[in-house]
Amino acid sequence: MTYAPHDSPVRPVDPVRSVHPVRPVHPVRSRRTARFLAARSLKLHRRAWAAVFAVLVLTSLVLGGFALATLSTVAGHARVERYAGAAAVVTGDQTTRYTAKMLGDEAQSTSAELTERVRVPRSVLPRIAAVPGVRAAVADDAFPVAVSVRPTGTRTSTPTSTSTPTATPAPVYGHPWQAAALAPFTLREGRAPAGPRQVVLDGDLAAHAGVHVGDKITVQSLGAPAMYEVSGIAAPKGQGDRTGLGHQGAVFFTDQHARQLAGHPGSADAIGVLAEPGVSDEQIHAGVRAALGGTDPARSVTAGQRYEEDDTGLRVLTGDSRGEPEFLDAAPSRWGLLQLLVSVCTLVVMIAVLVVAGTVAQAVHQRAREMALLRAVGATPKQLRATVSREVRTVAVVAAVIGAIGAVPVFGLLLRLLRSRDAVPAGLELPSPWWLYAVPLLTAGLTVLVAWLAGTLACRRTATVRPAQAMGEAQSEPERPGRGRTVAGLVMLFLGVASAGTAVLQFGEVAAMAASTAAMTLVIGCALLGPWIARGALQVLGAPVRRFGGAGGYLAAAAAQANARRLGAAITPIVLMVAFVTVQLSGGATLDRQGGRQGVDAVRADLAVTTGGPGITQQSVDRIGRVPGVAAASGVLHSTVVLARKELGDPRLERLPVLAVDPAALPRVLDPGVVEGDTAKLGRGTVAVGKDRARSLGLGIGSVVTLRYGDGANVSLRVAAVYERSLALGDFLFATEELAPHMSAPLHSRVLLGLDVPAGQVQAAVQRVLADSAPGARVSPAPAGEQRQSEDRGVGEVITMVAVSVIGGFTVIAVLSTLTLIMIGRRQEIQLLRLVGAGRRQIRRMLRIEAAVVGLAGLVVGVVVALVPLVALSLPLTGALPYLPPAQAGVIVGVVAVTVAAGVLLPMRPALSKRHSAGLARR
C-alpha cells in the first residue's frame, strides 16, 4: 500500500506506467486507513448519505412491520371463550383434503378450511364420558338467534334487533343450559330455565337489551319467533367484573328445547370435555383420542394448538385450538390474511432490494472521481472496497436499528386498522409473544446486507480497473450501457410479456399470479434498461424541448443526452411507483366496477327485505310470498364451496363464494344472464355455472362437476345452465333446496320480491308480516345490486390500501433520494454553467424542463408496464379494458409531479441563490 492518512508518508505512483501491484502493508495499517477515509467521506458527503439513510430507515421499518404482522398471523388462533372451562373439545373435521398423483406416481396433497359446521354424532357421548379422568362430556349446539324486547304489560312494541351494534354484541347464539358449564357460566340472578318458554341471558346481552329477570323477550332462531321469559342472568365464572364472553352473546334454553331449535337432534355442534381435578389436558387428550379410535400421535398445527383425527373424522382439540368450533370463520380468515401478507411481504422485499440497491449505488457512483483519484495516488483496491464497505455499514446499521424500533408501532397500527375495518373477524386472535419482537432485528440485518452488497458491487469497477482507466471513466459516462445489462433487461422484458400471455390463457389464481409476475418482471427489465429508456425519451422529447424551450431547453437536452445513465437512474423508481400503484388500484377497481354493473343488471326485483340480524328464515319468505300483490319471492342464501382441480400439475383447492335462490322466482327477481340451458331446471343434484368458469373447466349443459360444500360433503352435480354475470353472482348458482341442507344456519341474507302491483300498495302489508315473522327486518323499495360475498374481500381491501400507501410512500422517498443524489453530484456542473455566462433564470428553466422530461418519461413507461398485465387479466375476465378512477389517476400524476420537482429543484436552491451568484461574480 502507498496511501495512508496524514501521519504517514505518501509515495505517488505514476498512474500510466505503473502496472505492477503495489507493495502490501500491514493489515492493521490498512484497516486504520480505511477507517480514516470512511470517516472523512461520511463527513464530506453527509447530504448524499442522508438520502441513503432515509431510504434505509424506511426499508427497515416497512420490512419489520410487515414481518411482524405475518408472523403474528402464523401464530394466530381462534379465541377461546365459550369453552374456556373445558379440558378438551371434540368436534368434526373442518378441513377438506385433496390428493392427486403427480409424475412418477408421486402423490401430493393439499387442504382447505371449511366454512360450514361439521357436526359430531351424539352416539360418541358415552364413549367420551367413560374415559378415565373425564368428569363430564357435554354436548353443545350453537345456533344464531335475534332478541327483541317486549316490555311486560304491552301487547306490541317496535322490535329492536340485538344484532345492531348499539343494542347488543354480535353475534348472539343459542345453547342448551347444560353447555353453560363449559365456559363456565354461573347464575348471577334468577334460576336456570325450567320450561320450553324460559331462557337465561348472559350479563352483557341483558345489559345491552335492558332486560331483567321476569321480563318478556321475543327470540327468533331458525324458525318462527316466539316469546320467552327471562328466568335468569348468568356470567362467566372467574372473569372479575365481566358479565359476558366478549365477542359473542349467549342465550340458554332448556336442553330439550335447544335441541329442537337447532334442528339436528342426532348430532351436536361440539362436545366439551370436563376433567376431574388433577387430570392434565394431555391425559384427557390421549384418553379421548383412544376412545374415539385414534391411533396416530397428535400433530402440532401452530404454537399452542393440537388436534388429532380419529377413524370417524372427529378431532380432539386442546389448548388454543379449543376456540376453532366457537368461531368457524377464524381459520379461513387467518389463512386468507396470511396469504395476502406473504404476497405483500414478497413484493416489499423485491421493491426494497431494487430501491436500496439503486440508491446506494447512486451514492457511490457520485464519488467515482474521488475514488479514481485515490486509486491514482496509490490506494489499493482492497482499501477502496473496505472504505466504501465501512461507510455503507456505518450508515446502514444506524438506519436499520432506527427502522426496526419504528416497526413495532407500525405493526400495532396495522392490526388496529385491520380490526377497525372489520377485515379480521373478532374471533381471530393475533398474539404478540415476546419472541416476535426479535423479528425486526432480522429484517434490519437484511437491510444492512442489501446495502452492503449494493455498495460493494457499485465500487467494484473503479476498484479493480487500472488507475488511469478509472480516471477516464470517472470523467464521463460510457456511450452505451454494458452488453450484459442490456441482454438481461431484454430477457426480463420477454419474460414479462410471456407471463402476461400466460395470464390471458389461464384462469383464477394462476392468471393472477402470472399477471403479478409480469408486472414485477417488466419493472426489473425497465430498471436494467434505464439508460436506453432515457435515450428513447430524449429522442422523442429532445426536438420539441430544443425548439420551444429556448436556451434552457437546449441546455436540458444537452445535459440529459450526455448523462443518459443518470437520467435512467432517476426514471426507474418513478416507473416502479407508477406501475405498482396502478396495478394494485386498477385491478380491484376494474373488478368492482364490472361486478357492480353486473349486480345492478342482475336484480329485477321491485322490493327487497333486509335485516341487521343473523338472517331471515324460509318460513318468513313463504309468508311474504303469500302477501297479495307479490308475484314472486325468493330468499338469497350465501355460502361457499370448494373446487378441487389441478393447476400446472399441482393439486389445488379453491374456496369460492356462492349463492342459492328459488328457481321458480329467478326470471322475476334475479336475472343471471343465461347464455345456455335453463335455470328453471335447477333443483336437487343440479347447478348453474358461470361462463368463464365453465370454459376453464370444459363444462357444458349436461356435464358433471364435482364440488365440496361448506360442510365437507363431496357431491357430483349436473350443469343445468351457463350464465355470464358471474362477477356479481359467483361461479356457481344453486337452488335453495340443494344448498340449504349443507349450511350450519340456512338463513337468507335478504328476500327479493317481484310485484304485480305498484310497490306502494304492497310495502306496508309486507312490513306488517315481518313484524310478526322477522322482527327487525326492513323493506326497501330500491333493491341494491346483488354482489357475491367473498370472505377475504375486507382483508384484501385493507391490505391493498396499506400496501399502496406504504410502498407508494416508500418509492416516493426513493425518488426524492435518487434525484437529490443526482443533483448534489451536478453542483459543479451548475457552477461551471454559471461561470461561462448562464443566467439563474436559464438554469432554472433547464432544471424544470429536465424534471418534466423525467416525470413524463417515468409516467408513460410506468403506465405501459402496468397496462400489459392489467389488460391480460381484465380482458378475459371482464371483457373490458382496465379502469382506474380519475381521482386516483390524478393523485398518481400529482404525486409524481411534486416529487420530481422537489427532488430536482430543492437541492439546487443553494447553488442558484443570490449570495452564491455574487460569489461567482467575484471570481
TrEMBL record:
<feature type="region of interest" description="Disordered">
    <location>
        <begin position="150"/>
        <end position="173"/>
    </location>
</feature>
<feature type="transmembrane region" description="Helical">
    <location>
        <begin position="851"/>
        <end position="875"/>
    </location>
</feature>
<dbReference type="InterPro" id="IPR050250">
    <property type="entry name" value="Macrolide_Exporter_MacB"/>
</dbReference>
<comment type="similarity">
    <text>Belongs to the ABC-4 integral membrane protein family.</text>
</comment>
<feature type="transmembrane region" description="Helical">
    <location>
        <begin position="798"/>
        <end position="824"/>
    </location>
</feature>
<protein>
    <submittedName>
        <fullName>ABC transporter permease</fullName>
    </submittedName>
</protein>
<dbReference type="InterPro" id="IPR003838">
    <property type="entry name" value="ABC3_permease_C"/>
</dbReference>
<dbReference type="GO" id="GO:0005886">
    <property type="term" value="C:plasma membrane"/>
</dbReference>
<feature type="domain" description="ABC3 transporter permease C-terminal">
    <location>
        <begin position="803"/>
        <end position="909"/>
    </location>
</feature>
<feature type="transmembrane region" description="Helical">
    <location>
        <begin position="887"/>
        <end position="906"/>
    </location>
</feature>
<keyword id="KW-0812">Transmembrane</keyword>
<keyword id="KW-1133">Transmembrane helix</keyword>
<feature type="transmembrane region" description="Helical">
    <location>
        <begin position="513"/>
        <end position="534"/>
    </location>
</feature>
<feature type="transmembrane region" description="Helical">
    <location>
        <begin position="335"/>
        <end position="361"/>
    </location>
</feature>
<feature type="transmembrane region" description="Helical">
    <location>
        <begin position="567"/>
        <end position="587"/>
    </location>
</feature>
<feature type="transmembrane region" description="Helical">
    <location>
        <begin position="48"/>
        <end position="69"/>
    </location>
</feature>
<feature type="domain" description="ABC3 transporter permease C-terminal">
    <location>
        <begin position="344"/>
        <end position="460"/>
    </location>
</feature>
<keyword id="KW-0472">Membrane</keyword>
<feature type="compositionally biased region" description="Low complexity">
    <location>
        <begin position="150"/>
        <end position="171"/>
    </location>
</feature>
<dbReference type="GO" id="GO:0022857">
    <property type="term" value="F:transmembrane transporter activity"/>
</dbReference>
<keyword id="KW-1003">Cell membrane</keyword>
<feature type="transmembrane region" description="Helical">
    <location>
        <begin position="487"/>
        <end position="507"/>
    </location>
</feature>
<feature type="transmembrane region" description="Helical">
    <location>
        <begin position="392"/>
        <end position="414"/>
    </location>
</feature>
<dbReference type="Pfam" id="PF02687">
    <property type="entry name" value="FtsX"/>
</dbReference>
<feature type="transmembrane region" description="Helical">
    <location>
        <begin position="434"/>
        <end position="459"/>
    </location>
</feature>
